[in-house]
Amino acid sequence: MEHYLIIARSITYAQRMQRALGKAGIRCRIFRAPRDLTSLGCAYAVELAPPDLTAALQILRREHLDPVQIFLPQAGGIQEVVP
């Protein structure tokens, strides 16, 4: 299943993102970001479904929780998405 990975700079930041999205009814989960995606040592990823990306980004911006990067894993690899 396709999903987007929104990279957060820390676990606390990822938890804040998850909380803000959850309040808006957007389901997501957080986990340690794969090492090959970011040079940040303590980065975490927030995973969500493609139909939720636009609304999620609006919510995160409104809450001043801008993502570090956004990726879309695909069969051929991982592609960075520019919002």
> How helix-rich are the residues, as a percent range?
25-40%
Total number of helices:
2
Main β-sheet, spatial strand arrangement: 2-3-1-4-5
| Total beta strand runs | 5
Name the shape in a single word: globular
Mean pLDDT: 89
Question: Can you tell me the residue ranges where pLDDT is under 50 for at least 5 consecutive residues?
Answer: none
Rg of Cα set: 12 Å
What distance lies between the first and last C-alpha atoms, to the nearest angstrom? 21 Å
Q: How big a fraction of the residues is strand?
A: 25-35%
Largest sheet: 5 strands, antiparallel
- The helix/strand series, from N terminus to C terminus, equals EHEEHEE
Structural class: alpha+beta
What does this structure look like?
The chain has two helices and five strands, in the order βαββαββ. It has a five-stranded antiparallel β-sheet. The radius of gyration is 12 Å and the shape is globular. By secondary structure, it is of the alpha+beta class. The chain has helices at 11-23, 53-62; strands spanning 4-8, 29-32, 44-48, 69-74, 77-81. The protein starts with a strand and ends with a strand.
List the helices and strands and how they pair.
Blueprint (H helix, E strand, L loop, with lengths): L3 E5 L2 H13 L5 E4 L11 E5 L4 H10 L6 E6 L2 E5 L2
Antiparallel strand pairs: 1-3, 1-4, 2-3, 4-5
